[in-house]
Amino acid sequence: MGRSFLFRYQGRVTATRYLEEGFGQQFLFLDAINSLYRDGFGNVTDFLSDASWVRVFLKRWNLQLKSPTRSAQAELADLRTHMRQIAESRSSALIPRDLSVLNKALNAPTYQRLSLRRGALHTELRPVTADWSWVRSRIAASFVEVLIRYDHRLKMCRNAGCRWMFYDMTKGRTRLWCNDGRCGNRDRARRAREKRGGA
Ligand SMILES: [Zn+2]
After folding, report:
1. pTM (2 d.p.)
2. How many angstroms is it from 183 CA to the middle of ligand 1?
3. Residue 43 Cα, ligand 1 centroid: separation in angstroms?
4. How far is the CA of 96 from the centre of ligand 1 (A)?
5. Which of 45, 52, 56, 160 is deepest in the core (most CB within 10 A)?
C-alpha cells in the first residue's frame, strides 16, 4: 500500500485519510515516528498536536484513551525523537542511553487477561492504569520487537525531503522509497538531473 501525495496537509484527519497518508499499516511505532510528517516539499506537520490525528491513531491501535495532556504529548515527542535517532543511525548497536530511554518507555505496569472469544481462549495484555505511559510502552514494545530482529528491514525513504520510515517486506529487501510512484519517481528524476549536470 502506498501513500497519497495528492494534497498538502489540510483539514481534519479521518480514518480514511489516515490510511491514505500511509499510517496504520505496519507497526504502531512507525505511526509514532512518522507523525512528524514531511511532505517532501519542505512542509512539516506534527500530527501529535493534531487532535483528529491522535483520535484516529488511538482507535487504529486499539488504545482507548482521551487526547494527551501537554506533558504526555511532550514525552511522546521525546520518545519519537529517540526512536528515529536509533532507527536512522544504529539499529544494530544500541548504546546504554538508548536502552535506558527504551526501558523507561517500556515501564508501564500491565496484567494479562484471559477471555473467551467465539469459543476460543484469548489472552491480552492490559494496562494497570490506562494512561499515556501505557501508550508509550506499547509504542516502545512494537519498536523493540522490530529492533531485536536485526533484519535490516527498518528503513527510511531515500528521498531526503521525506524521511518516512517503513518496514521493507520485499523478499530481497530492495525497497528504497515510501512510495515508488511518487518519492521514487521524484528521486530518480533528481539523480538523473544531477548525473547530467555533473557530466
Ligand atoms: Zn518518501
Report:
1. 0.87
2. 5
3. 13
4. 31
5. 56
Closest residue by Cα to residue 134 from 38, 62, 52: 62
Nearest to 7 by CA among 46, 40, 30: 40
Cα(14)–Cα(112) distance, rounded to whole angstroms? 32
* pLDDT tens track for 11-70: 899 999 999 999 999 999 999 999 999 988 888 899 999 999 999 999 999 998 888 899
CA distance 82 to 75: 11
Q: How far from 39 is each of 22, 85, 104, 112, CA to CA, in Å? A: 12, 20, 31, 40
Rounded to the nearest whole angstrom, what is the distance from the C-alpha of residue 101 to the centroid of ligand 1? Answer: 27
Q: All 3 cell numbers of residue 109?
A: 505496569
Q: Compute, in angstroms, the gap from residue 152 CA to the centroid of ligand 1.
A: 18
DSSP-based helix, strand, coil % in the chain, nearest 5: 45, 15, 40
DSSP classification of residue 91: T
Cα distance between residue 157 and residue 163, in whole Å: 5
* Dist. CA 130 → ligand 1 center (Å): 34
